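#structure-requests
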Amino acid sequence: MKLFKLMEDVNYTSNSPLEKINEVEIKDIAYNSRNCEEGFLFVALVGETVDGHRFVKNAYDNGARVFLLQKGMESNKNIMELPNDVVKLFVEDTRISLSRISHNFFGKPSNSLKIIGVTGTKGKTTITNYISTVLNESGVNTGVIGTNGTFFNGTYEVTANTTPESYELHRIFRKMLDNGVKCVSMEVSSGGIMQNRVEDVDFDVAIFSNLSPDHIGPKEHPTFEHYLQCKARLFKMAKHGIINVDDEHAEDIIKAATCDIETFAIESNADLTANNIRYSKEIDSLGVSFDCRTKDETFPCFICSPGTFSIYNALAVIAVCRYLGVKREIMIDALKNAKVSGRVEVLPILPYATVIVDYAHNGVSLENILQTLKNYDHNRMVCLFGSVGGRTEIRRKELGDVAARECNLAILTADNPDFEDPMNVINDIAESFEGSSCEVIKIADRKDAIKYAIRNAQEGDMIVFAGKGHEKYQLINGEKLPFDEIAIARDEAKKVIEEKSLLA
């Protein structure tokens, strides 16, 4: 692609005359100097800890001759030392410009796709995957982008972030479009919005699930208000907004929106509501039935996931499907079997206890899942969890406080300790249990902890493995090591059942 076409709708200054810029051909774009080759344009991104301008010489040595740089860096030593054969393009914000040139480079693919963006603290992964399940069942080829990766047409691709960098995002859109995908259901994180990764995505629908304090800290959002503002920005990018008005922050989202708004709720007046809620429990599932009421009709629904949060997720999906014209019968049938790996995933491995894997990794999420499960018949509430190493102690306290209130037995173990001693994290969490009636067991090795939980399960126990969810690794000393807690639990349960049968 010609450089001048790539830079369409981007304001920039340059050291090179327009005639030269018009002649330059760009083979591809890189924002990591190690990925540069001859004919590449290198974008110097300014991050929290790393400034891409430090690596311009590396990019040059690897073949790049065109550089997208931040204004104010003209006199930077690294920039000034670049040889005279380079084209320097200076823009106000390289991250925003990366979004625009990626959009241009891949032929503006989001303009030709139906893009559904889901934002909120909880529920993004479930809602996006449910939407994909229902739309694919209805004959609309739909891809997914989010925490669990990218899925379309039976293919899977790992993503580094919940919302990928803008270049990766438009590359994926292009790949999906070229392979017959018509619609994309994607998670839109507050970080993705804050870092302008979705700046040039043509959103047809935006969904707001809920909002609670999360991702607030030195390297994330400075305040809760900033977190809220980032979430609200999505509703200035979309044509149609779908909002959970039971959430206390919904009004702020609605006030900030420039799109038309549709609402859903359980407790409040809304365009879609749920009532007549009933819970069901099977060996391989925990489900909930409800009646969905719109202004025009009322119809029964069932979803194979427990609790009120599952109803909220289902209502969001129903609203999208109605907006896109999906037949009601297809929508209802598809919702019955919709599941997401690592999200309240029931493992049918013990005939006498319910074992659940969930991604809950903060206090709000853990409280949500534990209180939900209490709606179902159970003996003890058992929770196995830890917290990530090298992060704020506040998250550890929040997790510990919840478990101390809600559980009969807490098995404290490693999550992703990284460079921190897992016992340091465990001991921080354990402080929450002082004065609690909840029994506490500390087992640093998560594999051993899982085995203990399975081996000591009692009749009617509700056992939750929290924190890892879909992840198939542990982060230890900076390295992602393979770790599959579902496989570990399944193997140990098999051994326990075999031993019990021999003793019978």
